[in-house]
Automatic annotation (TrEMBL):
Name this protein carries in UniProt: MFS transporter
Organism, scientific name: Paractinoplanes deccanensis
Residue stretches making up the Major facilitator superfamily (MFS) profile domain: 17-502
Membrane-traversing stretches: 15-38, 58-78, 85-104, 110-133, 145-165, 171-193, 205-225, 237-256, 277-298, 304-324, 336-357, 363-385, 475-498
Source domain of life: Bacteria
InterPro entries noted in UniProt: EmrB-like (IPR004638), MFS (IPR011701), MFS_dom (IPR020846), MFS_trans_sf (IPR036259), Sugar_transporter_CS (IPR005829)
Xref: SUPFAM superfamilies: MFS general substrate transporter
Keywords for this protein: Cell membrane, Membrane, Transmembrane, Transmembrane helix, Transport
Region named Disordered: 504-526
Main location: membrane
Compositional bias of kind Acidic residues: 515-526
Length: 526
């Protein structure tokens, strides 16, 4: 292999490489949402695995737990070992785990296989963004990250559609089996087209820091998940969150004193870095929580099938595809502060529309709300992500990418957990005495969730469903109000701390604001 320096104009195959990275990214992001429409089928004892409500939750949460817990570590290893080999390894693990998931014989097997999928995804996610930072020069990087962010939004939105199409023609395992050929094709294309890159001066590996980050992030994610399932007053939840705070505080103190830190925590003193990560966490908290209750509303309250309900997420996907790649031009014209703030206000407006959605609301209003949210996210993610990457040297791109993706994943997990807890609590309160007189198992299932109410409808009668729908819609309004508040909080953060428009005659950023323009990086051509 020959070692060559990065050309100032960027890699000659950079746009083709971006296409390959989008394929790699899509398979991971899409799987995060494709499972949602298959949950009812997996719970079926005849056509699925007969999974319980708790097992269904852990089939999602085992993936999230491993994914969020190992994202940061995967970014560090990618910088040291090479981004291309990390990406290929991640895609291979993801394909193998998807194959195992598709033919799982029990819910426990599915949960374990999903955890392995999370390990593969943790290797893929930071590698894609850090490769973009290395093959694109700074003037084009914002546009490339816009395409990357659009792919994230597209994967989130088309997951339910793909899942619905597969379930209408094949068995439940097909929602996982579809990953295998895509991941395999992505791995081959990465090996052929993507140059290897790594940190040329990695220093000694910070083993203690890596271990502390894994333990701390895993405890934090577990505490959030348990809070969503059992309430944040449950000892497993608050105990895990307190332990996470202690471990992560230890991690910060250790990183401040070690010679070669895994993460230079002093970066968070840079308002551009900390504000951008905060905005990403807040917007995913709001958006993922709303998609969680939106999927239940469409499939249960409105009675749409998996394909039809998935199709209603198309406006969100269209908005991402159209506006995310154009966000770089908007930032150049108006500055990241204005674009990010307006984007978050649009997300808040889309969430506010849910306050007026009821059992008979014209369905186009739901589609319009998703479209407005998509436009808003398309103008927040690219400038925020680019701001994070611009504060780091290019050879540390894996760490920057890992921080961005860890915050995004934790924000989404916290949004689903916290807003899910609000949804469950208000739903149970609103259901009131509607289950009085029913057999204990039937009443318990109906009070657990609206899915439980529909599951026992045959024994309980239509009156219960009427009460359950009304209770869920009220709970949905409370959850959407919570989502909107966090989107508005993100807009406030962006307005105060995200940098404004740079004067046309201002010099390019240097030092901690943009060492990527000046630092060399080792590229190993295949």
């Amino acid at each position: 292999m020959d070692t060559t320096a990065q050309a100032p104009a960027g890699h000659p195959r950079r746009w083709v490489i971006l296409g390959v990275l989008v394929i790699s990214l899509l398979v991971v992001v899409l799987d995060n949402t494709v499972l949602n429409v298959a949950l009812r089928t997996i719970a079926d004892p005849v056509h699925g695995l007969g999974a319980t409500q708790s097992e269904l939750e852990w089939s999602i949460n085992s993936y999230t737990l491993v994914f969020a817990g190992l994202l940061f570590t995967a970014g560090i290893l990618a910088d040291r070992l090479g981004r291309r080999i990390t990406l290929v390894t991640g895609l291979a693990l993801f394909a193998i785990a998807s194959l195992v998931s598709s033919y799982a014989d029990s819910a426990n097997q599915l949960i374990a296989a999903r955890a392995l999928m999370g390990l593969g995804a943790a290797a893929v996610m930071p590698a894609t963004l850090s490769i973009i930072a290395n093959v694109f020069e700074p003037r084009e990087r914002g546009r490339a990250i816009g395409v990357w962010a659009g792919a994230v939004g597209l994967g989130v939105a088309i997951g339910p559609i793909v899942g619905g199409l597969l379930l209408e023609h094949f068995w439940w395992g097909s929602v996982f089996l579809i990953n295998v050929p895509i991941a395999a094709a992505g791995a081959i294309l990465v090996l052929v087209l993507v140059p290897e890159s790594r940190d040329p001066r990695p220093g000694r590996i910070d083993i203690a820091g890596v271990i502390l980050s894994i333990i701390g992030l895993t405890l934090l994610t577990y505490g959030v998940i348990e809070g969503g399932d059992a309430g944040f007053g449950d000892p497993k939840s608050w105990g895990s969150l307190i332990a996470a705070a202690v471990v992560l505080t230890g991690f910060i103190l250790w990183e401040l004193r070690v010679e070669f830190p895994s993460l230079d925590v002093r970066l968070f003193a840079n308002r551009q870095f900390s504000a951008s990560t905060g905005v990403i966490g807040l917007i995913f908290f709001a958006a993922m929580g709303s998609m969680f209750f939106g999927a239940f509303y469409l499939q249960l309250v409105r009675g749409y099938g998996p394909l039809a309900s998935g199709a209603l997420f198309v406006p969100f996907a269209v908005a991402q595809m159209v506006f995310a790649p154009r966000s770089a031009a908007m930032v150049k014209r108006f500055g990241p502060k204005a674009v990010s703030t307006v984007g978050l206000l649009l997300v808040a407006a889309g969430l506010a529309a849910w306050l007026f959605v009821g059992e008979t609301t014209p369905i186009w209003i739901v589609g319009a709300a998703f479209f407005v949210m998509g436009v808003g996210m398309a103008n927040v993610m690219p400038p925020a992500t680019e701001s994070i990457m611009a504060t780091l040297p290019r050879e540390k791109a894996g760490v920057g990418s890992a921080v961005s993706n860890t915050i995004r994943q934790l924000g989404g997990a916290l949004g689903v957990a916290a807003l899910g807890a609000v949804l469950s609590s208000v739903y149970r309160d609103q259901l009131g005495s509607a289950t009085d007189g029913l057999p204990a198992p039937v009443a318990e299932a109906a009070r657990e969730s609206i899915s439980g109410a529909y599951g026992v409808a045959a024994q309980a009668g239509p009156a219960l469903l009427t009460h359950a729908n009304e209770a869920f819609v009220t709970a949905m309004h409370w959850a959407s109000a919570g989502s909107m508040v966090f989107a508005l909080l993100g807009a406030l953060v962006a307005l105060i701390w995200i940098p404004g428009k740079r004067p046309a005659d201002a010099p390019a950023p240097t030092g901690s604001e943009g060492l990527a323009e000046e630092q060399g990086v080792e590229l190993v051509e295949a």
